[in-house]
Specification:
Helix content is about 40%, strand content about 15%. By secondary structure, it is of the alpha/beta class. The strands form two sheets. The chain has a six-stranded mixed sheet, with helices on both faces. The protein starts with 16 loop residues before the first strand and ends in a 5-residue tail after the last helix.
């Protein structure tokens, strides 16, 4: 799908999000890609709606610490379901063909991966990043996808110096002059810089999606064996996911209100802005408006996997190993009613 809004905003947000249960409900452990912030409101909205309880799912949802961490936890069996960046899933499956993960639902039709700089740096194009320092944490989605971004824009990856920092220090590294750019979810980085006193008009962003890397963003993931063993639970969870997404679109204020229960540090107005950006830029794209949620075009799906694999220099994993539509709700549920 990211945002480090207020310095340590999510450090204290370790609360698990749970739904009311009965003795017959099936336990289901879920880990997000990031903290309980605006873009994650779909999950709190789904829990608040009673959908999980109605489907007899005892759902516990924990915050995440980036796609790489989430993928590791789901692959290890610590969680049944996760939310992670599509590019990171492709990269993981290419390196672990005997223990793959499969995306069962595309949450973000468009990736929010990006590189961001201060305009005062003089960097005004992707090529100008050569010889510069980019701050990011290892395994973060934008860093994983960077080779594809570099290939599409004629960047020599060998001329990039990576500054390894935790996600909450990326923006500070740029402001302090310890790095020339910060890679990451565009809104996370931009708002992180704004929180440090940088004006939006003083930031130059390079969204990968606008520079030749048109791949999906966040997706719901699971082990294939787990999904096959629990097909109804997988379908029901995705049905509630759709309900949560629709709430963020039709009633974003209610979605944010549901989120605040699990994040005592939440700035409702700030996160509402974050949610609006994520919805309009990554989730409710023209394609989704026309075709519904998670209805990815097969040609685009194959191109995305090929582009990512080629850029990373790894063997292309089979498409069926990366994404399956077997557990999607009916098209009538996936369709989005827009004005």
């Amino acid at each position: 799908m990211n945002y480090v809004p207020k310095a340590l905003l999510a450090v204290g947000v370790g609360l698990a999000l749970t739904s009311p249960v009965s003795a017959a409900d099936m336990p289901l452990k879920v880990v997000l890609d990031w903290a309980f912030e605006g873009p994650q409101a779909m999950w709190s909205a789904a829990a608040k709606s009673g959908c999980f309880q109605e489907k007899k799912l005892d759902v516990s949802i924990d915050r995440g610490f980036g796609s790489g961490d989430t993928i590791s936890k789901v692959a290890a069996g610590s969680y049944d379901i996760g939310v992670a960046d599509f590019g990171s899933i492709v990269a993981y499956n290419a390196k672990h063909p005997n223990n793959p993960l499969v995306a069962t639902f595309i949450v973000s039709d468009r990736s929010s991966a990006s590189v961001n700089v201060l305009k005062s740096s003089g960097i005004g194009s992707p090529k100008a990043l050569e010889g510069k320092r980019i701050a990011d944490t290892q395994g973060e989605a934008s860093r994983v996808l960077f080779p594809a971004f570099a290939k599409e824009n004629g960047i020599d990856p060998g001329k990039i110096s990576w500054v390894n920092v935790s996600v909450n220090l990326r923006q500070a590294s740029v402001v302090r002059g310890q790095a020339d750019a910060a890679a990451g979810h565009i809104l996370t980085v931009v708002n992180g810089l704004r929180a440090l006193g940088v004006k939006r008009e003083d930031i130059f962003s390079m969204p990968f999606a606008e520079y030749g890397v048109d791949v999906p963003g966040n997706a719901v993931i699971a082990k294939p064996a787990w999904a096959e063993a629990h097909p109804q639970q997988m379908r029901d969870f995705l049905s509630c996911t759709v309900a949560g997404i629709k709430t963020t679109i039709s009633d974003p204020q209610a979605a944010i209100a549901s989120l605040k229960q699990y994040n005592s540090m939440l700035d409702a107005d700030y996160e509402a802005e974050h949610l609006e950006f994520a919805t309009q830029v990554a989730v409710l794209t023209p394609h989704v408006k026309q075709n519904g949620l998670s209805n990815i075009d097969p040609g685009r799906l194959n191109r995305s996997i090929e582009q990512i694999s080629e850029a990373l220099g790894v063997e292309r994993p089979p498409t069926s190993q990366v994404f399956t539509a077997d557990y999607l709700p009916p098209q009538s549920e996936l369709s989005i009613a827009t004005p």
